[in-house]
Design brief:
Mean pLDDT: 89
Structural class: alpha/beta
Largest sheet: 10 strands, mixed
């Protein structure tokens, strides 16, 4: 059990950095710049020498992949808006221009600020890699070498690998009057080559793609389990064998580069006859979308640089010069080295005590009382997967209904649904085809389920179905009963080991009736608005949250206990923020735990002096959403607790189908209160936000400050070994 910390745990772990007070009208921070601040905190995990060495390498890659997605989606969208504004300029003196951000910037101004913020971070990433991580790797007998640093036997090994594995895969593409500029895929790395024909004085451009199907770092001193580990980059290996690709041609110069394309392709769902066909067309269209970023190394060849910018229709503002690697995500082969002393302690999720006996009927366990699940500390497979797998095999189960937003290609849930349908059960699966970057996988899953007889739906036009809910209808001895799982994370077996998420298994009739009607809304377009217990977006969720915030405001004004603690991934919904400002001004103490971007300004006198914002960054990705309202309760654990799939963002509350469920049982509320106190007391993984949007990292008072993730792993280990008598006390 998580023991609730004393009330003093709500004090901030560190004093936020001083910042100039914003102008009274400046209520909000820029969302896009706030997101970059989040990725800066991710980069700090790589810079921090308290992070195990190979995990530092991994965080370099996470920083890069995060930035790639950001440029493909947000920056690309802003660039489109900026171009549109250039074409359709607002007439002089006709009020505020269309398309301003919440902090008053035009898209072009936001793009300029993004570039100004990104360049120093990219330099910091390169300095971390070259000055800290490379020497530390070498000190541990892991060497990332340039071709010139290889021994002669290692060069021979590398050359043999090139001949057998690389050379047959490569396709050099020259550009001349008979061969147009080649298509270059998104996020692919290429070598641009300047070639000279021996009989002519002119030069031409050729592109050699670095194969995505091969490891990006090649070990050159054998493949034994032990060190030393000596690697050469695949692109460097290709560079030093270009003469094999262009025999008898003179190679004048070579430049490594990488492209990023826009994935923010517009779609018209209203006029689509088949959403699956629309998404398939969009996936194809996205491959050929406009290039929005060109990355290259230092000291580029001027002719290649100008040639690429001309062919790709780019400006200098679209070009980024990276001092070291172009794609740190390619270092995963290094981060995955099996050297335990250089990695985080392996974590094996524990089995929740009430689920420890695999022979006990899980439905009987749920009937005995709701289960609150906390992943990855508690096993996803022993709880959620077991629930759905058991339902698929149980002859008493009549129907299974499930939403899938993201899952794995070999998802155990898909195979369970197939078995259930083949057994004659009524099986419904709503698959979100518009889940960004998972569209193609989800289309394949939908097709497989349909072939097995599952009734597959693709959601509501104009809305993404983001809720994480499953309904099981079972014929128990005393009649038909519904069981439900409502969670904060995806039904994804891999991310369940890496993301922190919460879930509720329940047969509470008020909750399950709401889940039944939620599926009716999804499948039959029900217009129901008065749910008993669930908060459902876009139906009633935002209004209910605002009502609860305003209720805390009224309690504070009347001198009753009033407090709000909210944990989420991102915060930018303006009406919610303004309600929080009003609550702060009334004296409500508000603690916000926001992992990613936050457009609310905390700690502004007269506006938000009672609001604190912190971000928790560590080995697990904080993904759970928890919302707490004191509601005048004398004991904090008697307040109201909610968990679910939605952040306080406009897209979640107005453009997605989401579900938030209240936690009713007192032991589960106590557990959530204890979790919040651990998060609010963290001095190891926490970052405190200032009114200007900057963050200061908390500093431990002693070596005993373990951080949220280690504390929760230790607690999970303890709960896994308690006696039945202790369990009764804990639960």
């Amino acid at each position: 059990m998580i023991t609730p910390a004393p009330q003093s745990a709500l004090t901030p772990p560190v004093t936020p950095p001083a910042a100039a007070e914003p102008a009274p009208a400046a209520e909000f921070l820029n969302r896009d710049l706030s997101w970059l601040e989040f990725n800066r905190r991710v980069l700090a995990m790589a810079v921090d020498d308290r992070t195990p060495l190979l995990e530092r390498v991994r965080f370099l890659g996470i920083f890069t992949s995060n930035l790639d997605e950001y440029v493909m989606k947000r920056a690309a969208s802003l660039r489109t808006s900026a171009r549109q504004q250039q074409v359709i300029a607002a007439p002089p003196g006709v009020g505020q221009p269309v398309g301003l951000s919440v902090d008053g910037r035009t898209p072009a101004e936001t793009l300029a600020a993004i570039r100004q913020a990104m360049i120093p971070m990219l330099r910091e990433q390169a300095e971390c890699f070259t000055r800290q991580i490379l020497p530390a790797l070498a000190a541990n007998d892991i060497h990332l070498l340039a071709w010139d640093d290889l021994t002669e036997p290692e060069r021979q090994t590398a050359s043999r690998y090139f001949e057998s594995h690389v050379f047959p895969v490569l396709t050099p593409l020259a550009v001349d009057p008979g061969s147009p500029f080649p298509f270059i895929s998104n996020l692919s790395m290429s070598l641009g080559v300047v070639l000279h024909h021996p009989d002519r004085g002119d030069h031409l451009f050729a592109r050699v793609k670095v194969p995505e199907v091969l490891p990006k770092w090649i070990r050159v001193n054998g493949v034994g389990a032990g060190g030393p580990y000596r690697f050469v980059a695949l692109y460097d290996l290709i560079r030093h064998h270009l003469s094999d690709l262009f025999p008898d041609m003179a190679i004048a110069d070579v430049m490594l580069f990488r492209l990023t394309r826009n994935v923010d392709v517009e779609r018209d769902e209203e006029d689509a006859d088949d959403l699956r066909e629309l998404m398939q067309a969009e996936i194809k269209q996205r491959k050929f979308a406009r290039v929005v970023r060109l990355e290259r190394g230092p000291d580029p060849n001027p002719w290649i640089a100008e040639f690429l910018m001309s062919e790709l229709e780019l400006t200098e503002d679209d070009v980024y010069e990276l001092p070291a690697e172009l794609d740190y995500d390619d270092l995963r082969v290094i981060a995955d080295l099996n050297i335990p002393r250089l990695r985080y302690e392996p974590w094996v999720p524990t089995v929740p005590p009430r689920l420890a006996d695999e022979d006990t009927d899980i439905f009987a366990i749920i009937r005995a009382g709701d289960l609150l699940l906390h992943h990855p500390y508690e096993s996803f497979s022993a709880s959620v997967e077991r629930f759905i797998n058991t339902a698929a095999a149980d002859p008493k189960v009549l129907a299974i209904k499930m939403t899938l937003y993201r899952t794995t290609e070999a998802s155990p849930f898909v195979s369970s649904l197939v078995r259930a349908a083949e057994a004659g059960k009524q099986v419904v699966c709503l698959i979100e085809l518009k889940a960004r970057f998972d569209e193609e996988r989800n289309i394949g899953i939908a097709t497989a389920l349909e072939k097995a007889g599952v009734h597959v739906l693709y959601g509501i036009v104009g809305l993404k179905t983001h809720t994480k809910t499953t309904l099981v209808v079972r014929e128990d001895a005393d009649g038909i009963r519904c069981y439900a799982h409502v969670g904060t994370g995806n039904y994804h077996a891999t991310t369940a080991k890496l993301y922190t998420d919460l879930g509720l298994l329940t047969c509470d009739p008020d909750v399950t009736r709401d889940v039944v009607e939620l599926f009716h809304y999804l499948t039959g377009r029900s217009l129901k608005r008065n749910y008993r217990r669930l908060l459902v977006a876009p139906v009633n969720m935002r209004d209910r949250f605002i009502e609860m915030i305003e209720r805390e405001t009224a309690h504070a004004k009347a001198g009753r206990p009033a407090q709000i603690v909210a944990k989420m991934n991102a915060l930018e919904e303006r009406k919610i923020i303004r309600a929080l400002y009003d609550a702060s001004q009334a004296g409500v103490k508000i603690e916000l735990i926001v992992r990613g971007f936050c457009t609310l300004r905390p700690g502004v006198p007269g506006l938000s002096e009672n609001i604190r914002v912190r971000s928790i960054i560590g080995r697990f990705l904080e993904h759970s959403r928890v919302y707490y309202f004191r509601n005048a309760a004398a004991d904090p654990a008697d307040g109201e607790f909610y968990i679910g799939s939605a952040d306080w963002m406009s897209r979640n509350l107005l453009a997605r189908v989401e579900a938030i469920v209240p936690i009713a049982r007192r032991p589960l509320r106590e557990r959530l209160w204890g979790l919040l106190q651990i998060l609010l007391s963290d001095r190891r993984q926490a970052w405190m936000m200032a009114a200007d949007g900057s963050y200061a990292q908390a500093r431990p008072e002693s070596d005993g400050d373990l951080g949220t993730h280690v504390i929760l792993m230790n607690l999970a280990r303890h709960e896994a070994v308690v006696s039945p008598e202790e369990l009764m006390l804990l639960r």
